């Protein structure tokens, strides 16, 4: 692998102003959505928007289903007794 000298990164006033403007717009958009959803009917992260009436899944259940993990033990099909 070739070595090269470190690159200098300079922060300019224009970059700071652009960042502050974008941050301000983002906060305004977030506050608008929060005020629109303040009636208490907003969906929680554990609730899908299409399963009305079904029980909510826990955070752990959502993660397990997303990664394909099934924590239930599988039954053994050998039928042999366990010797101690």
UniProtKB/TrEMBL annotation:
Q: Which GO terms describe its biological process?
A: anaphase-promoting complex-dependent catabolic process; cell division; protein K11-linked ubiquitination; regulation of mitotic cell cycle
Q: Where is the signal peptide?
A: none
Q: Which GO terms describe its cellular component?
A: anaphase-promoting complex
Positions of the UniProt region annotated as Disordered: 24-53
Keywords, in A-Z order: Cell cycle, Cell division, Coiled coil, Mitosis, Nucleus, Ubl conjugation pathway
Q: What is its main location?
A: nucleus
Record keyword DNA-binding present: no
Q: Name one Pfam family in it.
A: ANAPC_CDC26
Query: Its domain of life?
Result: Eukaryota
Q: Which stretches does UniProt call biased (Polar residues)?
A: 34-47
Locations listed in the record: Nucleus
This protein's pathway reads:
Protein modification; protein ubiquitination
Basic and acidic residues compositional bias: what residue ranges? 24-33
Statement: the UniProt record of this protein carries the keyword Nucleus: yes
Q: Where are the transmembrane segments?
A: none
Q: Which PANTHER family does the UniProt entry name for this protein?
A: ANAPHASE-PROMOTING COMPLEX SUBUNIT CDC26
Family affiliation = Belongs to the CDC26 family.
Name of the molecule in the record: Anaphase-promoting complex subunit CDC26
Organism of origin: Lottia gigantea
């Amino acid at each position: 692998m070739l070595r090269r000298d470190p690159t200098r990164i300079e922060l300019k006033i224009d970059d700071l102003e652009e960042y502050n403007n974008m941050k301000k717009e983002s906060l305004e958009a977030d506050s608008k959505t929060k005020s629109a959803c303040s009636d208490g009917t907003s969906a929680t992260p554990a609730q899908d928007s299409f399963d009305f009436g079904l029980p909510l899944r826990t955070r752990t259940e959502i993660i397990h289903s997303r990664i394909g993990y099934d924590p239930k033990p599988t039954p053994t099909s050998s039928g042999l007794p366990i010797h101690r």
